[in-house]
Amino acid sequence: MQKIISLLSILLPLLLVNCDNTQSSEANHNLEELLTDLVVSDGDLSLDALSDEEVANELFIDGDADELGRYELVENYEFPIKWGRFIQSIEGNIVFDPYDLETDTIYASIERVIIGNLVVVSGDTSTTDSGFVFTPIDTTSKPFEMFSTRRVRFVRMFGNEDPFHGWRIRGKTPVVINSVASTVGISSISLNRQTAVFEFEPIFSYSPSDSTVDPFLTIQNIPRLFNHEFIKALALIDNTNPNMGEYPGSGEGVFLHYGRFHHFKGRHPMFDDGGIISYNGHYSFDETENDNEFTRIFKVRRSQNSQNGIAYKMYFDTIDYETLLNPEGEYHSTIIGIPYIIQN
After folding, report:
1. CA–CA separation, 142 vs 83, rounded Å?
2. Among 43, 84, 277, 342, which is least packed by CB within 10 angstroms?
3. Tens of pLDDT along 11-41?
4. Torsion angle, CA of 300/306/308/309, rounded to 10 degrees?
5. CA distances from residue 24 to 99, 103, 164, 264 in whole angstroms, order as listed
6. Burial class (CB in 10 A: 0-12, 13-18, 19+), 333
7. For residues 297 and 271, what is the distance between their CA atoms, to the nearest angstrom?
8. 0.70 exceeded by the pTM?
9. What are 268's strand-pairing partners?
């Protein structure tokens, strides 16, 4: 009897510890499911505007031009091209940093794998009485795989007596999307508000490698743009492709996507030609040709019937010319995406 009692005295604490661990593990699982639902329902964190499929006709026709008449990439090559990404799947998971149930702040990483095809349409151009005409000649396609990552911060705003109540997303970093072993990268992006002719004031900047600045965007520091104002966007590019000298300019194209969802999305080229960028009489210098500092002026527009303060998304997108011009070339691209708000 004494041996049985002694054995129970040893096993009982172990059973209690195991029970506590099981309950704690289940509670953590339930909480992470709740936080995952917050991510899924947050439109700012989706990549729904990354695919060009629903706007392919507009991109391949591309009737948008600034006053210099520069359309996409068509004036850079002997044979002009149009291109677009067609996403087949986006899969991933959320990796939570270690935490305890009593905390009121939890951090996590959102990691996704993006698989699709890059479609390049080569053709010819002409100017007619009715305007600019792009005539397709050939279409090529190459598969691609990209990896996206961003950080998110959850904060329990109320309900301290219940660890499952009151959680909200209160901080998200820009999303960074890279192809495998990409030879092109974006070292920094910035948005600048026009205050006078050739004069701008900075309103937002981000560098993935700058560890001295809090990368989390919150309601206090998310870029806020005013409807119909003019913004100068800048992107600094790194290109280590050993074959880039075989291609025009600095060896890569840079584009700015902005708008809401699929249906209100525009994609426009940024420039590194050392010239004056003009848009509806608003001007800005691209100071040095082929220095990998790309610029563009754009006019802020709200989508029709959208409410004041609705979040939009913007992508800075660089893709090397070997990817676009060489059907046998590897796929190299980097994208940085940020949410922004348009106000009246």
Report:
1. 11
2. 43
3. 455 444 454 555 567 878 899 999 999 999 9
4. -80
5. 12, 14, 13, 45
6. buried
7. 10
8. yes
9. 256
Given a cut of 60, whether residue 125 has pLDDT beyond it is yes
End-to-end CA distance of the chain: 82
C-alpha closest to that of 233 among 259, 250, 266, 255 = 255
Helix and strand counts by DSSP (H, E) for the chain: 3, 16
Contact 292, 250 (CB under 8 A): yes
Both structure tokens of 181: 């072993």
**Could you tell me the two tokens for 335?**
């994208």
Encoded tokens for 23: 């309950």
∠ at Cα 274 (186, 252), nearest 5°?
A: 35
CA distance 107 to 266: 32
On the question of pLDDT at 147 being above 70, the answer is: yes
**pLDDT tens digit sequence for 186-196:** 999 999 998 88
Given a cut of 90, whether residue 290 has pLDDT beyond it is no
Interatomic CA distance for residues 192 and 234, integer angstroms: 8
Residue type, 183: T
For residues 120 and 83, the answer to whether their CB atoms sit within 8 Å is yes
Contact in structure between 232 and 297 (CB atoms under 8 Å): yes
